[in-house]
Structure formats: structure tokens, C-alpha cells
Amino acid sequence: MNAITDVPGISVGHFSDTRRPTGCTVVLCQEGAVAGVDVRGAAPGTRETDLLAPSNLVSEVHAIVLSGGSAWGLDAASGVMRWLEERGAGLAVGPARLPIVPAAVLFDLLVGDSSIRPDAQAGYAACEAASTRPPAEGNVGAGSGAAIGKIFGIERGMKGGIGSACVKVDGVTVGAIVACNALGDVIDPDTALPIAGARTPDGKSLLDTRRALLRGEPPKQLIAGTNTTIGVIATDAVITKVQATRLAQMGHDGLARSINPVHTMSDGDTLFALGTGRAGRSPGMMVLCAMAAEATAQAVARAARAAHSLRVGNLYLPAARDL
Length: 323
Prior knowledge:
The chain is built from five helices and 18 strands. By secondary structure, it is an alpha+beta fold. The chain is globular and about 60 Å long.
């Protein structure tokens, strides 16, 4: 299926708000999965990432939430916790079971009415929609209001989205799902050519942000944190918490191959990694890390290619398919 749901033990659900382009995406692992995280962007919005540090107590999580709505979108994780609790999933803590649900958000408040953002009910609805089928891509879930290539102003940017991909080697699968709301351009990881991003002043073609910056074109004054690429990497290999953290770190190599510039002061780029252990083995970290970077890069490219153009008020964001 070439999606993160190729990984046994993983299901994905989206909630897309019909009132404005925003939403959330949940990656469920109800039986628990070893987890790690790596935050590279300078303006992150996250929840429960400290507990994923290798030196800290909790080693397994039960879901990861990716959401629009900036910091308000973190509320979606509360709905995911409620959904999991109703089904008896979670860490046993005395008389209760506590679902562990880390989350990360992206900023999509410039698209439509900013008072509308994902909440607990949105997270619950995403869980209700979750399945092991290939997740929808493009303008759905956390990618609903995503935009890319905003370094010279959002009016010269393009529509971002959410995408998924997977890599299989010797009976082991690594998949990724990424919501791309990057400040920079999305780059084809195989050709190094821009797929979507900042457009020329006439809006008719791609500018190529990297080359524009290097020849001295000044970026527009930016509001910190108004971008961000967030995602989840999952594998059925048997891994430890330390190794999950390393997979999340290596996933950022995939972002660096598919977004330029990446990890800027206005991005909160965050990647989680999950290990379900269903394969019963591991090909070793060298191979797994290469697979994680590749799946992440391909998921970003698919996010841009799957997106559709968006018009909200006076703002028009064309998609890669439109140029």
C-alpha cells in the first residue's frame, strides 16, 4: 500500500474540519509501541515529548497526534485519550489505565477563521475514523490548512498537505506519515528539484528558494512559529527506546532531503518514531535508519503532490499539480 499502515499494529485516522481548512491526524497503536522523538525546529508546539527521552520512565505510547491549530490543537490529544480509555488501552496505574498520547502541532491560523481549531472532539473523531487502510493524503487531517514556501510571504506560497510512504527490506517495514507546513520548498528527494514552494512574483512558476536566498533576495519578515513539519515514523522491527529515538533523529535526514530550508527559526519540525515489534526481528540500525530517512523524504514529496489548490477569502494557494 506504500503507507505507514503497512506496519502491523498501526492504524491512522483523520479529522478534517468543514468550517475552515484545519484538522488533526491520529496514529494509533492501541496495544502499545516503543516510542522516541526528535525536535529540530526552533518553534515547536508539543505535548508529552519529555517522557520519551531514553532516560525517562515510560517506554511505550498508545497513540501520536498530529494537529493543526497551533498550540490550541494540542487539545485534540485529550479526545484521543478518552477514546483509548473507553477501550481499555493505556498504562496500568493502580485502578486506572492511562493512555500515553504525545502530540505535535503546526500553525495553520493564517488560513480562514483562526478561532476554529482542532479540539478534544476532533481528536476523538479522528480515532473513530482510524483504520489500517492507506490514509488519505493531501488536504486532509493535519494537512488541511498546511501551506509551504512562505519565505517571501504566504501570498507567494503554495498548498501543503499530508503524505505517507513506506519502505520494506528483508521482511521488515518502516513507514512514515508527514504533515508538511514548511517555510521552505518541498524538494524531490531523487532529483533535488523543487516540487512546490515559493513562487515567482507573477505567481506562475517556482522560484527555488535556496537559490533565491543565496543570490541575496531578502526573505519577508516572519512571525516565529508560523510553519512546521510534523510526522510519525513507524516500524514493525524489534527496537528499544534508545533506538526509537535514533530513528526519529534519522528521520530528520529525510526532511533535509525533501525540504529546503528546513529546521528554521520559524519552524517547529518534530518527528516521532514507533516500534511495534511485530516482525519479531530487526535488520540492524544501519538499515533501519536508512529506511526511516527514505520513508520520511518520500512522505513529504507525496504530501506536496497530493495537495489540491485552496482559496480562502483573498488568499489563493495553488498546488504542485497546478503549475
